[in-house]
Amino acid sequence: MEDCILEFKKVSKSFGKNQVLDSIDLSILKGKITGIIGASGEGKSTILKIIVSFYKPEKGKVYYQGKEVLKIQQKVKKEFGFSIEEGSFYEDLTVVENLTHFGKLYGVPINKLNKRVKGMVYFVGLEKAANILAKNLSLGMKKRLDLACSLIHKPSILVLDEPTADLDPLLRKQFLYLIKKINAHGTTVILTTQIMEEAEEICDQVCILYNEKIIVQGNISEIKKKYNSNNLDQVFKKVFSNKRRKTYQESKEKKSKFEEIKKEIKKEIKAENPWDILEKRIEKDNKEEKYKDDL
């Protein structure tokens, strides 16, 4: 039996009165690429933010190597890498400066940092852009920089939210190749995507999130067989064409708050650890939302 490195057990999450996840179970296999697929508003990004403890579940627990994630935060921060769709690097730092900064934050030894930064710049193909400010990079280069920042501390688990969003077909192919290279070195990869061809190309297993629950997870061939489909795209259409589908979309007010938080964090370059800042502010924001519901 294959090793399970990360596990959700009966996890539920709501934002105010809107339930996003309802008692979900999820098993992530060690050393594999797992794709979380679902239509917009199904809660894919919420699952990722629970994995890295940006969000806390109202019910249920998440376990990493058999231990509850919320009780081993330092281990999680050291061994997880997280890349959000919008990017988490600093626009006014160069590629090298960004990688050096994140390397220090994640505790990469000083005597190894310069070598690690140079190696990462080469790995993601940004040698010619090493000394260019991040804000002046192309979209594809920004995606690669964000990936490099999440890898600088050599995490055991890499969590990617819509990693190829907005990329053209050629850049998407190059990025998928990078992800496969990372996985080939033993890193467990968890990603969300709405591109079924992409999921079918690189994922060892997928789970489908629908109406607040994971309705199926496992080997892609088995899932296609279950839904009598030739590919994941057909599976997706069969699942999400159901008229009973319900979705939750974050309100514009909540999205704008999250954007404000990110902008403020990016200004605090001297902060001890960006994980701590974001976690505290999201927790505060969630409390404010809960208070509003009680009025």
Compile the SSE list and pairings.
Blueprint: E1 4-15, E2 18-29, E3 33-37, H1 44-51, E4 59-64, E5 67-68, H2 73-79, E6 80-83, H3 95-105, H4 110-123, H5 139-151, E7 157-161, H6 169-184, E8 188-193, H7 196-202, E9 205-210, E10 213-219, H8 220-226, H9 232-240, H10 252-267, H11 274-294
Helix pairs in contact: 3-4, 3-5, 10-11
Q: Could you provide a short overview of the structure?
A:
The chain is an alpha/beta fold and 295 residues long. 44% of the residues lie in helices and 22% in strands.
Attribute tags:
alpha/beta, Rossmann fold, single chain, 11 helices
Written account of the structure:
The protein has a single domain, classed as P-loop containing nucleotide triphosphate hydrolases (Rossmann fold), CATH 3.40.50.300. It is 44% helix and 22% strand. The protein contains eleven helices and ten strands. It has helices spanning 44-51, 73-79, 95-105, 110-123, 139-151, 169-184, 196-202, 220-226, 232-240, 252-267, 274-294, and strands at residues 4-15, 18-29, 33-37, 59-64, 67-68, 80-83, 157-161, 188-193, 205-210, 213-219. The strands form two sheets. A six-stranded mixed sheet has the order 6-7-8-3-9-10, with helices on both faces. Strands 2-1-4-5 form a four-stranded antiparallel sheet. It is globular and about 50 Å long. Residues 289-295 have low confidence and may be disordered.
Question: Which regions contain 5 or more consecutive residues with pLDDT less than 50?
Answer: 289-295
Strand order of the largest sheet: 6-7-8-3-9-10
Order of helices and strands: EEEHEEHEHHHEHEHEEHHHH
CATH topology: Rossmann fold
Q: Based on helices, strands and strand pairing, what is the structural class?
A: alpha/beta
How many helices? The count is 11
Oligomeric status = single chain
Computed over alpha carbons, the radius of gyration is 19 Å
How many separate domains?
1
CATH superfamily: P-loop containing nucleotide triphosphate hydrolases
